[in-house]
Design goal:
Elements (H helix, E strand, L loop, with lengths): L2 H30 L8 E8 L5 E8 L4 H7 L5 E6 L2 E7 L2 E2 L2 H4 L2 E6 L2 E2 L14 E7 L1
Length: 136
């Protein structure tokens, strides 16, 4: 086998390996990725500010993801910056938590566990209890 043939074979095998790897990653995401729940749900969203004061929002919602539910929570306000991973929350109910400025950030929890996704991809299920907490 000539060196040119070996080189072409190596490129083809490398490209095939990349296609198989990407296919495996897509399959894993489809199997294990965030899955929203359709239909009406009862959830809570609790906001804990830097003074450890808490505000509880109780919702009946059809939202499939946390950001949609936050938009529906009467009185809950938030701001942030869109980035490669979705919206990065910097302000909740008027209080800023910007890591680069004050070493603080907003932590998101669902049912006592740290959220695995950003608010645009965090699924909402019936009975979920979300906490948005100022952290430093």
């Amino acid at each position: 086998m000539s060196s040119k043939t070996k080189k072409i074979l190596g490129i083809v095998l490398g490209a095939l390996a990349i296609v198989i790897l990407i296919g495996g990653m897509i399959a894993a995401w489809l199997i294990f990725g965030a899955k929203p729940q359709a239909g009406e749900k009862e959830i809570t969203i609790e906001v804990i500010n830097s003074a450890d004061e808490s505000v509880l929002y109780e919702l009946n919602t059809d939202a499939e993801f946390l950001r949609q539910a936050m938009d529906e929570a009467d009185g809950l306000t938030y701001e942030g910056e869109e980035g490669a991973y979705g919206l990065m929350i910097t302000t909740v109910n008027g209080e800023q938590a910007i890591y680069e400025e004050n070493g603080a950030y907003w932590s998101f929890y669902v049912n006592g566990e740290y959220c695995n996704y950003g608010i645009d991809e965090q699924p909402v299920a019936d009975g979920d209890a979300f906490v948005i907490e100022y952290a430093q």
